[in-house]
Amino acid sequence: MRFLFVLMLLACGHIECALSAIPPLRKLTVISSNNHLLDRRFGMLPLPPSITSPYFKALRKLVNIDSALQSKDELSVIRALRHWTSVQWEHDGRYAPPLGTSALQILEQCKGGARFNCEGYARVLMDMLLAHGVVARVVYLKTKDAPYAPPGQGHVAVSAWYNAEQRWIFLDPQFDGEVALHGIPVSWIEVADVIKNGDTAGVEFRSAKATPQSYREFLQAYTGYVSTLMLIGGETELVTYRLDSTAKQYFTFQGLPSDGTTFAETRNDFNMPLNGTSLVFYSTNPQAYEQVLTKYKIVTNDDYMHYMSLFTAAPDYSVRLTCSMPWFRTYEYSMDGGDWKRIKGSRVAIHFHNGSNDLRVRAVNEFGWFGPITAMVVQYE
Amino acid sequence: MIALLTTLLLVSSTLSHAAKVPDSLPLKKIVVDSSTNHILDTRYRRMPLPSKIEMPYLAQLRERVQRTADLSDKDEMQTIVALNGWVSAQWKHDGRNVPPLSMNACQILDKTATGVRYNCEAFARVLSDVLIAHGIVARVIQLRTTDQAYGGPGQGHIAVEAWSNSLKKWIFLDPQMNGMVLRNSEPLNISEISTVESDGNRNELRFQCSGISVEKYEEFLLQHMGYLITLIKSGTRDVLLTLSLNGAEQFLTFQGLPASGTEFTTKSVDFYPPVNETSMSFFFDRLISFDSVMREYDVRTKEDYVRAMPLFAAVPKFKIGLENTMPWFDHYEVSIDGKQWTNTKGAELHWTLHEGRNSIQVRSVNSRQMAGLITTMHITYGNDGSSHVMPGASH
Fold first, then answer.
1. pTM to 2 decimals?
2. Looking at chain B, which residue has its C-alpha nearest residue A280?
3. Which of A51, B41, B213, B256 is the most buried (most CB within 10 A)?
4. Intervals of chain A under pLDDT 50
5. Which of B120, B223, B252 to substitute to test the interface with A, most A CBs within 10 Å?
6. Which chain B residue lies closest to A251 (C-alpha atoms)?
């Protein structure tokens, strides 16, 4: 790739060139694009490598959310799973499911009459979402006084990636709840902003088990910290983001050791984007600068500009695709609003026709959910 | 550690049993007064740096520079400035002559010693390797005008950016013209220069250069503030990461020719990943589970819990795991309570807080014995004077 740097050569001097019949220059111009370098930090999420395992199949068999699945609307599926989880047992704040107890085992025990706390709901919903191809993780919300205050300083919920809005959203399976800003569910970091700022316009605290007012009152205590498990240096560690700028880093939770806690400095360290697709274009007719100079006997800048239409980039590219999608299955692309076409592998040949070209690409996961669309409008004329 | 997550259990405060603990024990708290410790940004791993700097080629380059450049007693910034000056003085610029890609910095210097002259790219390639040979993280960058897609030749300039541990950021170096750009005496990188200029504060920029007037250099450099480009690794190959400056749009061509293998970003941090940082993860020597506390101290209510807290509160005896983002890492160093730096001899250390104010500083050191950024935490351990009894609790 370093060959590109040699294109910097500043030509000077004068020679005669004898080429004639120079056609007009046809330019490739990127009119708009959201094609960007992908954020690779999604690799820090401690996700299962695949969602096709017998465990996830067994989880899928337990739920009946056919109407939501048939709608093919991601948010409907997420909400249906949240609701399903919320009604599997009556909340009992005294009992956290033992460590090592899977969602399947928690649900089995509940059938036998066991009841669990918010963490039980969160662990079940997380695995249910994963089983249905939705990237999700458990989040631990904490009060600002959590380091040395008595029990009750935390609430456990779920954060899921919502492709359509390209954001993480807060899901509370204990309360069958979420918080929306201007109609769109948002992440706990954004909810904490809303609570701290005292905003009310456009804010909805939604719960099937509590009134908006009581749900807001319950949640507003937990705006000190939010934690989640992440992979750091190959180890799973509890990463914490301070929701309140006056909240200090800590070593304890309710007086007890809070082992292995590491703090994130920025929101994106905690809520990194994922499921994106990036395109890198490679010309199918590459031309070396030196060869161009020799072939067209170019010495001056004026020569170069004069003959540019003879050697300028042709509108044919081999496009290499990469994505930040867990459980990736395939890429799809669409030209000029046409049907989505599946791409075999991670390369696609693109020919830009005269005029405006609308190129869209997306990644699709094992469950069939597609990630945010990368769109480019390229003019060729 | 996951076990502790279950301590989020909400305990009912309606039960009436009293815990069998004394009423007034002092609670010793561990309080983080200040900290620069945070999870590390691993984006630096995409930089195509050599895996080690103790190799014959870089040793030869280092020896070659130090034959004529006196770097003794120079700090990091003085070394960077001296090396920029040294490279810029090795030959006179000739924009027509680009060194073949197969030539390394030593071979370019061999040629220039015989009178051959090269362009800006040669200066940049030599300075980047010279800096790396001295343990300084550096890379070649390319600046392009906003007209680069279909402008004629001359739409770009090649230079270097280097990571400064003392400034905790990347800085711009132009070895063709021994150039740097400063604001309030602080060297800037290209993104900073572009921002200052686009904010209308161009008069605050101080351009330094040799062999060209300051005015011409300023005009030349600011002409090239359309795009900033460098190589990064992308899977098994390299791509040109491009940061759009001045709101410039994406492109598919450069000077009319295909601009293959380009990726774009609008985020400065993608282009300027921090390096040479160290982070600490703390693990307690002794863990106590929430459930065992409830049983051992017969805790039934929140008031019981608060009264018993001095008996079970975390004791600050730690094992600390260390991580770094330092290319050519060699070892970690630690300083406790402002004492001398010592080699940790591994990625783990043990630390017990004393009562009162404690401090810990850690840093990474590379194989050229250059120390990276210091991570500092100030922690107080002891009774902070506040009541250990829950406000409003009844005894």
1. 0.90
2. B261
3. B256
4. 1-19
5. B252
6. B30
